[in-house]
Every structure is written in structure tokens, then in C-alpha cells.
């Protein structure tokens, strides 16, 4: 029987193949042949994470003992019980990164991300979560000791980077939200949003792995799919970004079986909140957080807000203050270890992070003032202006290209992409725009173009 192979992901994201015959802990390629000490030497973080792995393993075993044959994850291809999910995880091959060593790549559809997360958490290998439509970023530095989860995000900074988290930090965020949202009393969480994004990950897949929450994953947020999913459940938790809630509202979708409705990712307007209340009879709860810190505050009340800046109250265990410039600084046990490529003046280390948001605190009530970061928020998708500008430069050969965000007339869209080219305005024709945007994703395409006067 031929030896199994391990995919090796290099700095270009290409896969090559390497023979391997080691297999610790019942995972393919991690038992026998090579010793655990060999891989501890290559990735010392495994030894540091021993206690965390045991903690997760004990929690997971309790879930298996209590509901192992219950449905854990429903998806268009069928259903996985908790036992089946574990079986899928234990047959998943790890990748090998020149920077990380052996790791699991969580990229693709919901089931693919779920089994990669479980494989990593059970085996002690780090898991890098990447959006399905994005290229994986190879971290520019080795992961800090204890790293279990690596997020790849742009965020308000406008720079695509890796963020490192221990398993305890990821669990602290999921545990905090599970308690605050009362997910233990909800039958199923629908997941029509990206589960590779912090909001989707922490409200669906992590509670499934840590608390046994049942998840129904959907490939798109389209109303028809939501309606079909709702017909299968009595009580559901439905998380979504404001643009999704607006689309569901306009579609006339029936949400009678939604027991908990939550919005995050972008500012929630009073108008949208009020319309959801009138049409669906639902209180749309406002949740605020960042990928670096996890959830920060939550509007748990049942009455509509009267101030659009109202972000609810700080969650238990979260401490916050505003610095002299008004930027929000957050402290909690869910704040990550740091970035792979920190920018000058940033504060992001274990337990403490200064956000790009300016805010106001009144006791434990948090109010949003503005976001000062260069990242562009298009319908809750955070974009890098430098990445978009670089793609336009490559497509046009024009060096003088700058990109920024501007407020959109549609509040749920939040911002539009604006491109400024070092050309006379008359030369920015439709043909030029088409050529310039050939390498852009649909959500990166500028809605507005500016040129030199004259």
C-alpha cells in the first residue's frame, strides 16, 4: 500500500506532494513512522497547547456522549451527526507550510471549514481560516507559541494580515456569545453568512464544536434558500449583516420560526431595525466586535433602540476604555496574540487591542462615533484599498492609481469604492474602466472614478 502524502503549501500557495508515514493521535499522517517529538521540534507550540487540546477534547467528548448521533451540521449535500463530523475530521489530511509547519487549511464550504477546525483542535495543529474566494496568505512570521487558530482578515486597517489566537482565546469568545445570546435554548443556528468570517465563525461553527449547537449551513443568503431551511426547523437563530437583513425584508420572506435575530458587521440603522420589527415582529439585536477581539458589546434589550450609535452594553468579561483621541481600547480573554505584520503604533497583543473605531462609553453602554481606518466596508465585506489599486495598476499599466472608500447612499452598503487615476477625466472611458476592472472581484469594482481636472 503506498505511503500517504502531505500537501506542501509554499509562499505562492501552490501544492506539491511529499511522501509521509507518520500519524500521532489517530489522524492521517500523524501516527507512527515519525515521533511526536519530531513534530514538537518542528512546531514547539504543540507542546505548549497540550492543556488546551485536552480541554477541548474533554468538551468534545461530552458532546459526543450526550448527542453524538444527533445532527451537528446540515448542508445541501446531506447531514453530518457529531460522530460523523469527527469521522470526517479524523480522515482529513494536514498541509505543510514552510512557515507554520503542519497545519490545517479551513477554506471552502461550511462542511470543509467545520472538519478542518475539528481536526486542528483535536490534533493540536494550528488551523488557518480563509474565505472561499480569497488566496491564502502565508504568514510573514512563525506563529506565536500556543497558536491554534489563524484568521486572515483585512478589517478596518485596510491591510490583509494574519491574526493569531490560542484555543482558549477562541473558546472564550464563543463561550461569551453562547451565554449572552442564549444559544443553549435555540434549536438550530442558520448559517447563511460566511463561516470563515469572524462573525459567522463565532456564532455558528465554534458554538457547534464547543457547545453542541446544531448548525444548518447555507451556501448563499438568498431568500429562497432561507425559506427552505426554515421549513425544517421549529426555532432558529438567524445571524446576518445589515445588507442581508435588508434583502430578506424586501423579499417578503417569512421569519415566523426565527427565535433570535442578530445583526453585525456594519452599523445597524434605526430604520432597518424598525422595519424588521414591523414586518417580522422581531427585535433585531445589534452585536458589535472586531476580528481581533471577538464580540465586544450586545444590545440584549427587547425594545427598539432610539439612537443609531447604540452598540448595546459591554459583554461580561469585556473591559473597554477610550484613549485621548477617542479610539476604543478593548481588554478581554478573547483578544488574540497579534498580527503577523503589525503596523507602526498598533496595539494588539494577548488581552489588549486598540481598534480603529472611535466610540463613547457611558458606564458599560457603548456608542459608536466613527471608523477612522482606511479599510473599505462594502456591505460588511472589508476591502483593502491598496490591493484594489495594485490590481488596477497591473491591468492598466498606470502607476498613478489611488483607491479609497466613500459613504454610500445606501446605508446598508456602507461605503462605495472610489478610484482616482492620474489621467484627464476624459480618458476614463467605459472601455478604460472595463479593462481596469478585469482582475477585480465584483465587490471590488469602483462605483466612482476620478481623474485629473482638465
- CATH superfamily of the largest domain, please? ANL, N-terminal domain
Gap between N and C termini: 72 Å
Strand content is 25-35%
Quaternary structure classification: single chain
Q: Please tell me how large the radius of gyration is.
A: 22 Å
Summarize the structure.
This protein has helices at residues 36-42, 45-48, 50-67, 82-90, 110-123, 167-181, 198-211, 223-230, 242-251, 270-280, 385-396, 430-436, and strands at residues 5-9, 15-19, 71-75, 78-81, 95-97, 101-107, 127-130, 147-153, 161-166, 188-191, 214-217, 236-240, 258-263, 284-290, 294-298, 310-314, 319-322, 327-331, 338-339, 348-349, 352-362, 365-371, 376-378, 381-383, 401-407, 415-424, 448-452. With 454 residues, the chain is an alpha/beta fold. The radius of gyration is 22 Å and the shape is globular.
Fill in the keyword field for this structure:
single chain; 454 residues; alpha/beta; Rossmann fold; GMP Synthetase, Chain A, domain 3; 2 domains; eight-stranded mixed β-sheet; 12 helices; disordered N terminus
Describe what you observe in this structure.
The protein has 454 residues and is α/β, with parallel strands linked by helices. The protein folds into two domains: 5-371, Rossmann fold; 376-452, ANL, C-terminal domain (GMP Synthetase, Chain A, domain 3, 2-Layer Sandwich). Helices cover 28% and strands 31% of the residues. The chain contains twelve helices and 27 strands. It has helices at residues 36-42, 45-48, 50-67, 82-90, 110-123, 167-181, 198-211, 223-230, 242-251, 270-280, 385-396, 430-436; strands at 5-9, 15-19, 71-75, 78-81, 95-97, 101-107, 127-130, 147-153, 161-166, 188-191, 214-217, 236-240, 258-263, 284-290, 294-298, 310-314, 319-322, 327-331, 338-339, 348-349, 352-362, 365-371, 376-378, 381-383, 401-407, 415-424, 448-452. The strands form four sheets. Strands 3, 4, 10, 11, 12, 13, 14, 15, 16, 17, 18, 20, 21 and 22 form a 14-stranded mixed sheet that branches. Helix 10 links the parallel strand 13 (258-263) and strand 14 (284-290). Helix 6 packs across helix 7. The protein is globular. The relative contact order is 0.09.
Amino acid at each position: 500500500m503506498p505511503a500517504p502524502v502531505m500537501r506542501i503549501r509554499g509562499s505562492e500557495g501552490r501544492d506539491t506532494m511529499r511522501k509521509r508515514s507518520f500519524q500521532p493521535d489517530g489522524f492521517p499522517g500523524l501516527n507512527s513512522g515519525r515521533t511526536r517529538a519530531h513534530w514538537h521540534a518542528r512546531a514547539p507550540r504543540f507542546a505548549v497547547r497540550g492543556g488546551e487540546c485536552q480541554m477541548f477534547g474533554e468538551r468534545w467528548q461530552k458532546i459526543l456522549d450526550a448527542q453524538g448521533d444527533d445532527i451537528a451540521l446540515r448542508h445541501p449535500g446531506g447531514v453530518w451527526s457529531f460522530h460523523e463530523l469527527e469521522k470526517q475530521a479524523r480522515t482529513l489530511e494536514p498541509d505543510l507550510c514552510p512557515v507554520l509547519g503542519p497545519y490545517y487549511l479551513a477554506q471552502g464550504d461550511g462542511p470543509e471549514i467545520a472538519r478542518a477546525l475539528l481536526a486542528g483542535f483535536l490534533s493540536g495543529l494550528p488551523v488557518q481560516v480563509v474565505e472561499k474566494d480569497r488566496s491564502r496568505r502565508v504568514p510573514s512570521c512563525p506563529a506565536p507559541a500556543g497558536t491554534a487558530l489563524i484568521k486572515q482578515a483585512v478589517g478596518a486597517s485596510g491591510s490583509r494580515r494574519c491574526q493569531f489566537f490560542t484555543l482558549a482565546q477562541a473558546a472564550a469568545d464563543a463561550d461569551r456569545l453562547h451565554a449572552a445570546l442564549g444559544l443553549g435554548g435555540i434549536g438550530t443556528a442558520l448559517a447563511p453568512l460566511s463561516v470563515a468570517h469572524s462573525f459567522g465563525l463565532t456564532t455558528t461553527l465554534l458554538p457547534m464544536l464547543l457547545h453542541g449547537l446544531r448548525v444548518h449551513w447555507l451556501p448563499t443568503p438568498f431568500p429562497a434558500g432561507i425559506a427552505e431551511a426554515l421549513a425544517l426547523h421549529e426555532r432558529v437563530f438567524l445571524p446576518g449583516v445589515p445588507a442581508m437583513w435588508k434583502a430578506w425584508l424586501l423579499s417578503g420572506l417569512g421569519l415566523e420560526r426565527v427565535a433570535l435575530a442578530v445583526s453585525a458587521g456594519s452599523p445597524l440603522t434605526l430604520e432597518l431595525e424598525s422595519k424588521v420589527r414591523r414586518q417580522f415582529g422581531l427585535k433585531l439585536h445589534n452585536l458589535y466586535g472586531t476580528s481581533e477581539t471577538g464580540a465586544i458589546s450586545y444590545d440584549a434589550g427587547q425594545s427598539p433602540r432610539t439612537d443609531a450609535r447604540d452598540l448595546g452594553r459591554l459583554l461580561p468579561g469585556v473591559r473597554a476604555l477610550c484613549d485621548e483621541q477617542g479610539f476604543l481600547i478593548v481588554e478581554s480573554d478573547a483578544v488574540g496574540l497579534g498580527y503577523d505584520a503589525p503596523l507602526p503604533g498598533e496595539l494588539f497583543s494577548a488581552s489588549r487591542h486598540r481598534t480603529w473605531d472611535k466610540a463613547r462609553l457611558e458606564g458599560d453602554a457603548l456608542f459608536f462615533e466613527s471608523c477612522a481606518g482606511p479599510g473599505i466596508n462594502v456591505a460588511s465585506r472589508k476591502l483593502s484599498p491598496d490591493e484594489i489599486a495594485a490590481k488596477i495598476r497591473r491591468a492598466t499599466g498606470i502607476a498613478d492609481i489611488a483607491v479609497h472608500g466613500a459613504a454610500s447612499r445606501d446605508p446598508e452598503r456602507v461605503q462605495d469604492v472610489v478610484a482616482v487615476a492620474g489621467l484627464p477625466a476624459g480618458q476614463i472611458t467605459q472601455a478604460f474602466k472595463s479593462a481596469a476592472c478585469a482582475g477585480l472581484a465584483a465587490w471590488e469594482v469602483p462605483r466612482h472614478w476620478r481623474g485629473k481636472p482638465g
